[in-house]
Every structure is written in structure tokens, then in C-alpha cells.
Amino acid sequence: MGAYFSEIFLGLWSLLIGLGITFKEFFKPVVTVPYPFKTIKMSDRYRGHIELVEDESGEPKCIACMMCQRACPSGCISITTKTEKYEVEVDGEMKTKKRKILIGWDLNFTTCSLCGQCVESCNKDAINFSKEYNLASFNKEDFHFDLLNRLKERNS
Amino acid sequence: MDLTIFNAVIAVVIAIAFAAANAAYLVLAERRGAGRIQRRPGPNVNLFGILQPPCDGIKLMTKQLMIPGGADKALFMVAPVLAMAPAIMSFVTIPFSDTIVAHSMNIGVLMIFAFASFGGMAILLAGWGSRNKYGVMAAVRAVSQNISYEVPMLITVITVVMMTGSMDLREISLSQSGGIWNWNIFPISMKDGFMLQPMMPISFLIFFICSLAETNRAPFDLGEAESELVAGFHTEYGSMGFGLFFMGEYANIVIGASLITILFLGGWDCPLGLYPGVWWFLLKIYLLIFSFIWIRWTFPRTTIYGLLNLSWKILIPISLFNLLLTAGLLKVF
Question: Would you tell me how many other CB atoms lie within 10 Å of the CB of residue A11?
Fold first, then answer.
């Protein structure tokens, strides 16, 4: 008999505690935002698609060493370069030297798995993750990013 | 009271308008309340979502009414109407204040409970008529639930009727006028001589729980348990068939809150005996409705065993004890 009543009272008490919690929550400010009109700041560790990093002069830090292209398990990075000859003065005489310059940095985001191997492998910290998440399209081509162009557009 | 046909029609139209407006806007209130409790805003476009109910209504009305193959057409069509109509009928006899009542009957309590028992019938017909296994299972559950919760509810009502000596809702309210200490929920009554009614707050609690169960509200919404029965008895209903079930549910909630107010909380009486009127009645029913919403978004759904155990092992013995105690005390004092 005592167990019967204590069960009722303890049960009722636990229900009241639950009601108290939701009543307090009722008056707290909301934590969501109306999405298309307001957005929240993405956290530092958020991984969007990769983006090129610029140096002080606004040029990409990338030196086209191709480490990221080799590291990518999905093969979605393709870097195009061209060799440029230039003259430099060494010990009083002019010499012709060659260097590689970056002319295209294409990311095929349709096959990217966001593993981050490219960012890990980069020796110059020239790529990092963007905070972009509004990625939806009916066209496959919209996910073939030309990161060099994106960098230029960002700077202009 | 002089009741001509014209008066009766006006009263019924007002009752329907009140029920429909409440049903529509309580859905909004429910969703806003759910949102606040879960710390999100809920429907908030155009001034607190004031246009949400009309939009929902238009959407439901323009949809096609589908009747599943093999369903019993007559039962399938009649069930939503049966869910809505008794709720509206009950509004006719509810006194909102001393003078605002469509038709005051001397058996108002009996009438409301007679109509309330149609709710279980509507669910049974909906589940059975739609030829859906989930519907049938939900109907079976809901009927066993409604039967087991009608017993303690009616025993509690008998207790109140015994104390008042009347089945007229207006009389019951009038007998509690004059302040919170005269209300039926108060354990000591000083109305006509000193009287103890120590179990009345518990009776109020029992009646409150039973009205939650009778209106199929969470945590007793076993009839539409989404997680296990798809949508329960209204799985096969779309468009306005579903809309009528929805409106019937909210109209029933208003009826339940009004009954609790009239039977236990003094109807239109002010707690301190000042300015009694319809505003106190509305304030009380909306506070009760808020607590219904609050409870719905706090507790998870009970199991069917827990539900029936609560009724047969706890609510019925306590309400029976209260009935005997009240009868004895009435005899003594």
C-alpha cells in the first residue's frame, strides 16, 4: 500500500520537474535563425570546398608544386602550369632560367570527398577550406570550380 | 428563457464560428508554443503567423478528397463529420457568463458527456472504414482508452453534481460565485455553512488528466501514435477530412477546458470576487489550453499498458474513494 502511494507521488513529482524544465525553456531566447534571411557564422573547423589563399600582394600563394594534386585520392584537382623563360643576372652575366607559373587551378567538386588531404599536403599553406555551404544546382558544371578565377573575383 | 427558432439559429452560428475560429487559431498557438518550448520561433511570417491558419485552411480545402480502394465509403465519409459535429453541439449549452449561453439546459452536463462519447465512435469508424491495418489498430487503442477514461471522468463529475445538486452548467457556475474560496477546487467550502471537501484538488487533477485522455492529447495520443502507427486513425484521410479531424480535436480541447473551468474553477467568477464576467471565463480556458499545449510538448507518449494501468489502478479507485468521502461528508455536515 505504501509502495502504491509513493509510486504515485514520486511519479507526479517527476512529471512536475519535467514541466518546470520546459516552462523555463519557454521564456529563453530562440536559438534558431530564419535561414535564407539570416545566417549564422560557420565555425572555424567547418569544411567547405577548398579555396586558394592569397599572399600580401593579392596573388595566390600557390607555387604549382602539384603536391595536392598527387595527394588527392579522388583525383579531383587539376593544376595547369606553363613554363616561362626569364633572364636573370648572375655574376655579371645574363642567364636564361625557367620557372613554372600557375595558369589554372580547377577543382571538380562533384567527386571531392572533403578529406582534406590537399590542405594537409600543401607546403605553403596555399589552400584552406572555405565556409561556403549554399551549394545546390541542377547543373553538374556548376561544381567545377576555377579557384584561380574565384580568387580574382574575391579580390576585385 | 425564450428560445425562438431565430435565436437558436443565431446561437448555433455563433457556436460554430467560435469553435472554428478557436480550432484554427489554436493550431497556430500550439505550433508557436511548441516552437518556444523547443527554443525556435515557430510560424512567424507576417505578424506572428496570423495568416497561417487561413492558408492551411485554403490548402486543405483545395486538395482532392481521396477515398482508398476497398474502404467503406459511407463510414469513411461520415467519420470526420462525426468528429466535428458533437464538439460544436456541445458549445450550445456551455455558459460563457451569466447571460451568454446559447441554450441553458438543466441536463447540460449529461448532454456534453453524451456528445463527448461520440469522439470515440468517430475514431472507431475512421479506423474501421478506411481499411488500413494501422487505422484499425489505432481505432482499437483509442476506443479502449476512451472507455477506460470515461469512467473516472464521470465519477468525478458525479461528485461535483452531488455537491451542487444540479446538472445545469449555469447553476454549477453560479453556486461557486464569490471568490476562489467558493470554487469547487478549494478544499474547504464556506458557501452554506462550513463544509470539508478535502479531495477536491485531487479530483480536479483526475478530471484534468481524463480530459487530456478523452481529447486524445499527448501524452495519451495513442490513437495517432506517429512513431508506430503512421498517423493512426487518420492515416488515409487527406484534404478536409483530415481538416475536420484536426478541427474536431481542437474544438474538443476547448470543450474540455470549458468543462474544467465550469466544474472546478468557478466558471466566469473572478478569484477575488471582483468583476465577474466572460473575460474571466476566457482567461481561465486559455490558461488551461496553454497547460494542455505545455504538457503535450513536455512528456513523451505513454504505452498502452501504462495508460490503462493509470486509469484502472489509480484514477478509478481514487475517484471512487472521493465519491464515497464526499457523499459521507455531505451527509455529516
Answer: 12
